[in-house]
Amino acid sequence: MLVSFEDGEWRRFSVKPYLQFPAYQPLMEPTRFMAAHVLNGTVAWPGDIDISPDTIYITGVRVIPSNS
Question: Where are the alpha helices (DSSP H) in 1-68?
């Protein structure tokens, strides 16, 4: 997923490595994965699934948007 942060940074983050863990396995269903939204500053999905913004920022790959 491509995530923008308040400081202007963009990060490309892959959830794929997390899908091996039971808590994230529901995200293998495309419809559920596409239901991602921001909840209190965290990327979240239905079913109480979320990923810390710190994890996304630290492990995500920095991306420079094409419009900059």
Answer: 30-33, 53-59
Q: How far apart are CA 52 and CA 15, in angstroms?
A: 12
CA distance 50 to 48: 7
17-61 pLDDT, tens digit each: 999 999 999 999 999 999 999 999 999 999 999 999 999 999 999
Strands of 10-12's sheet, edge to edge? 2-4, 10-12, 61-63
Residue/partner pairs of 41-46 with CB below 8 Å, 24 or more apart: 43/1, 43/3
